[in-house]
Amino acid sequence: xxxxxxxxxxxxxxxxxxxxxxxxxxxxxxxxxxxxxxxxxxxxxxxxxxxxxxxxxxxxxxxxxxxxxxxxxxxxxxxxxxxxxxxxxxxxxxxxxxxxxxxxxxxxxxxxxxxxxxxxxxxxxxxxxxxxxxxxxxxxxxxxxxxxxxxxxxxxxxxxxxxxxxxxxxxxxxxxxxxxxxxxxxxxxxxxxxxxxxxxxxxxxxxxxxxxxxxxxxxxxxxxxxxxxxxxxxxxxxxxxxxxxxxxxxxxxxxxxxxxxxxxxxxxxxxxxxxxxxxxxxxxxxxxxxxxxxxxxxxxxxxxxxxxxxxxxxxxxxxxxxxxxxxxxxxxxxxxxxxxxxxxxxx
Length: 347
What we know:
Residues 169-302 form the Alcohol dehydrogenase-like C-terminal domain. This protein has helices at residues 59-63, 140-152, 169-180, 192-200, 216-223, 237-244, 274-278, 295-307, 324-332, and strands at 8-16, 29-37, 47-55, 82-92, 102-108, 112-115, 122-123, 160-163, 184-189, 206-209, 228-233, 247-255, 282-285, 315-319, 339-343. It is an alpha/beta fold. It has two domains: 8-136 and 313-343, Alpha-Beta Complex (Quinone Oxidoreductase, Chain A, domain 1); 140-289, 3-Layer(aba) Sandwich (Rossmann fold).
């Protein structure tokens, strides 16, 4: 139903019932009904948007624990979850945005949102690709992959690259960047279907199902017998510890995330850091939000690669806000095939 001429609309939203301890469950969230005013308050610089696609990202699980960390606050109980999404502007009190603009950035897990913090909201100008791509390959995950590979790790042709959580939005693109650069690429994933996707769709040289590997150190020696020059760490924990034992001299570890740790009350310790001394390795963490100034450069590069079919991208789109809870929990359990997206509304 359209909203033209309406001052208020019904608004379904996904809210957090309680802070979690351990693995997230669908029952930790509720789908509730509400209403929203469709006019942005005058002088507020805010936008009212219709949410089109929502991104399921692992750090959302951390925000459900109630723990605070430096760059993000936990979710507020009883309020809608927030995360990256694609939306259409319905009303604007901001001079840089107008009605019918398409944008991507942080929005609410609801049908409509009032966005007050527009600092990192980016206007979508290229619409000849699926809009859902701006939750992944053309959005924050894509920029994360670009910055990590091209700006931070100084890759060389022939490098041995290992990517964990390689079937996610960041991992699938990182692996393809490395292959285009002439690297030997190995990835880990959470299901046989994901392993097949890595090898036969994304062009990884090798891939393995980490759930079937009881000894990560032995696994890495089997799949990376020459050692690892570059590790893109999306999971942390035991996998990171095993990688430290398999580094080549002057290796680089780029810290993208730590999905294996987000739900733990006490994160696992790392035992093998002395390997960074003997291998003269470096570890670099980063946040994509601090590299938004590179987004225009990245967008130009990635759009060309997409149009020339030099990179491929796989999405797992869940239809309807009522599927959002299941979709979010599924990414932690490795149930998604490709980037997990929730389609909320039609244009």
